[in-house]
Amino acid sequence: MSSTTTHAYKGLEEPDTNNSTWFDPDEQSINENWDSGDWWDASSGFRFQKKSVWWTYLEQLNQGVRNGKYTNGAYWTYRDNVDLIHNVSDQIGTTSVQSERAKEVYFYVHHKDRIDGTRKDATAVAVVAYIIEYDDNDKRRFEPQWKSDSGETVAETLSELFNVDARLIISIYGKVRHYVRLADSFGKLPTFDSQNMDRRGLDIEPDFDDPEQHIKS
Hints:
By secondary structure, the chain is mainly alpha-helical. The protein is built from eight helices and two strands; from the N terminus they run αααββααααα.
């Protein structure tokens, strides 16, 4: 049988975004292999002059984070949303399990056919509040209109903490509850990382606005 018919990528019609290039895990990182003054001896019109920046750039291409000189917009939007959920979860105070559930719910409801066209930070706050309120193992009350002994509602407390209108938190919370209840069950919510973005994490993010890191013409 010929190698053509047995090749793993026979019939491949779309770009391979599986980050399949193998890197020896025992190798040092880019920063450990090259110091800040390590440059190519001769200039080139196709690569970054600084070695660490060039190899970082190639790794980003391999990860699918960049496509030539363009960044993967979907990836960065995804990372921005994940960071938002983590930040809100950390400030309110959640367990790692609650934070992961908040990500699932956020990416489920933050959709053009569900909750769209509103401040995503308000959606994140409402989602985390919902996760805590409906967690049987968490005794805290986080229904937005529930009042503490001081007379302040949860929505008002969250409004002060995140600079989001309390009425907006109440409104989005109701929508979150509605759409999650429409799902068959919590465990059947669509996978929040449907495009496998999470596995493309970056350890090094070079500053491409730095003139020293631009490809020389």
